[in-house]
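User: Let's play a game. I give you a shape written as tokens, and you guess the letters that built it. Ready? Here's round one.
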């Protein structure tokens, strides 16, 4: 164990230096020193892995009776496989707990990973079973390969899971780097606003719009913005969790606050990309109600805070408190690249509060150099370049993908080690099959073809499952993160299946190549 720890720490240290050199252009010049913690974590990881992952094999080894050397029919340790799964799960949980320092997160990750593994295992076993039925009517080499898959279903299922995860990571990295951001941008309409301005003073707004119009940049709509905080709902003060001390004395029965100041705006017209789902917009209210203070609330915020039509919300703006009645609840298309708000008031409510303005507009690439000159007359205004943000996101994704690619290499290497170990574990059985088939007259070409087909089918299944998992992950990213229409990625299904078939096929053939080169007499001697 000591030798393994020393070798592992040495390899890890050298590997860290190499990686830091390769990623030097993406990293800051001064990197914080982490001290001895990674070294102790590495030692602890190796010790836990050695102690727990080796329990089951050692129990089997120590329980083997000496007479089994002469009599192969004598059984040793009879414990079920559930003991191996239990001890392995305990080791994984301990490692996750040590690294995350959060027992709830560790349990959640363990249960979710266990559920995914179970689903993949069921899919693997059922697919292998189905392929056996399909292979019964196929050619002899394919039939023999599928029969081999079925006989070694348990070990093949483990190999299938490891390569499925590795190929899925590969596909996600490829899609993120090459397609996803481009797909998101392509769904935006032409001349979608690519710049925002904030903090435009109220007395400058007309001159500001006129100056931009002279340069051919149209600012169609601006919104007044006032900072304020929600402090009460229906007269009941909300819980404002600012610090741990305040949280301890907070009234747990009180409604929970938003937790921060909001950008409050007012307007007579319903903004574009907003839709009323409950209630009535200000201009459609009865005449006797239009003299009151009213507010329109975004739907998801209303659901989270359990707000309903007719509720009275009390706000604090610069030390002044006022109350408004919820007259409508609306949906907001946040990805519209236009100013959007959780709270919109009727103009009467906010007329006595000072405000600055916010606006979004489209600037062609050839006019971007003129922006700095336009803004020189308005020193309080801040410009946000959305194109620059998107480019920065691309660079961040590229940097993150480099780290993921490194993890991917480790996962692929781990998958290869698992694959080789499982193949070596089945080598005795494969040698027996090889002797029998050669005795029955099977040619070397036929045997090589059957072995190659067996591993190619296994790799293709791993690629198929990886493509399916990748499609699910992309669906979540597209619909929940990028708020775009989900699309089907056929090309990555082909990449996953072909990659799995080629990689596993080549590895499998290389692992069994030496065995197939040995003559029958030498094989018989190795089995005795």
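Assistant: Ready! My guess for every position:
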């Amino acid at each position: 164990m000591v030798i393994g720890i020393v070798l592992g720490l040495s390899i890890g240290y050298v590997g860290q230096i190499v990686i830091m050199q390769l990623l030097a252009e993406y990293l800051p010049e001064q990197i914080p020193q982490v001290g001895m913690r990674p070294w102790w974590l590495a030692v602890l990881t190796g010790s836990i892995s050695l102690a727990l992952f080796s329990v089951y094999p050692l129990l089997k080894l120590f329980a083997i009776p000496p007479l089994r050397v002469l009599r192969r029919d004598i059984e040793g340790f009879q414990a079920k496989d559930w003991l191996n799964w239990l001890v392995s799960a305990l080791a994984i949980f301990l490692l996750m707990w040590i690294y995350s320092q959060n027992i709830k997160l560790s349990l959640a990750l363990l249960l979710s990973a266990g559920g995914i593994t179970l689903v993949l295992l069921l899919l693997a076993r059922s697919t292998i079973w189905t392929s056996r039925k399909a292979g019964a009517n196929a050619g002899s080499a394919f039939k023999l390969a599928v029969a081999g898959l079925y006989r070694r279903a348990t070990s093949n299922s483990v190999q299938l899971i490891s390569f499925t995860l590795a190929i899925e990571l590969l596909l996600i990295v490829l899609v993120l780097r090459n397609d996803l951001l481009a797909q998101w941008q392509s769904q935006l309409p032409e001349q979608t606003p690519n710049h925002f301005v904030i903090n435009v003073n109220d007395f400058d707004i007309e001159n500001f719009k006129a100056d931009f119009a002279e340069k051919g940049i149209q600012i169609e709509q601006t919104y007044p913005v006032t900072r304020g905080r929600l402090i009460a709902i229906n007269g009941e003060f909300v819980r404002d969790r600012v610090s741990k001390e305040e949280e301890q004395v907070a009234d747990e029965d009180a409604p929970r606050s938003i937790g921060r100041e909001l950008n409050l705006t007012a307007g007579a017209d319903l903004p574009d990309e907003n839709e009323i789902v409950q209630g009535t917009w200000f201009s459609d209210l009865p005449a006797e109600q239009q003299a009151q203070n009213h507010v329109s609330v975004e739907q998801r915020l209303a659901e989270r805070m359990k707000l309903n039509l007719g509720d009275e919300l009390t706000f604090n703006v610069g030390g002044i408190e006022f109350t408004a009645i919820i007259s409508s609840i609306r949906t907001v298309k946040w990805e519209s690249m236009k100013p959007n708000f959780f709270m919109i008031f009727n103009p009467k409510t906010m007329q006595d509060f000072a405000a600055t303005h916010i606006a979004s507009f489209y600037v062609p690439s050839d006019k971007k150099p003129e922006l700095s000159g336009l803004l020189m007359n308005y020193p309080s205004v801040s410009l946000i370049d959305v194109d620059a943000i998107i480019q920065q996101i691309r660079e961040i994704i590229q940097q993150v993908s480099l780290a993921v690619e490194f993890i991917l290499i480790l996962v692929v290497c781990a998958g290869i080690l698992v694959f080789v170990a499982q193949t070596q574990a089945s080598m005795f059985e494969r040698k027996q099959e090889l002797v029998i088939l050669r005795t029955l007259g099977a040619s070397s070409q036929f045997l090589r073809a059957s072995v190659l087909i067996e591993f190619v089918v296994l790799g293709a299944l791993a690629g198929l499952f990886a493509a399916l998992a990748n499609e699910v992950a992309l669906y979540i990213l597209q619909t929940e993160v990028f708020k775009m229409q989900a699309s089907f990625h056929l090309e990555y299904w082909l990449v996953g299946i072909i990659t799995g078939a080629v990689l596993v096929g080549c590895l499998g053939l290389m692992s069994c190549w030496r065995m197939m080169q040995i003559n029958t007499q030498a094989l018989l001697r190795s089995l005795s």
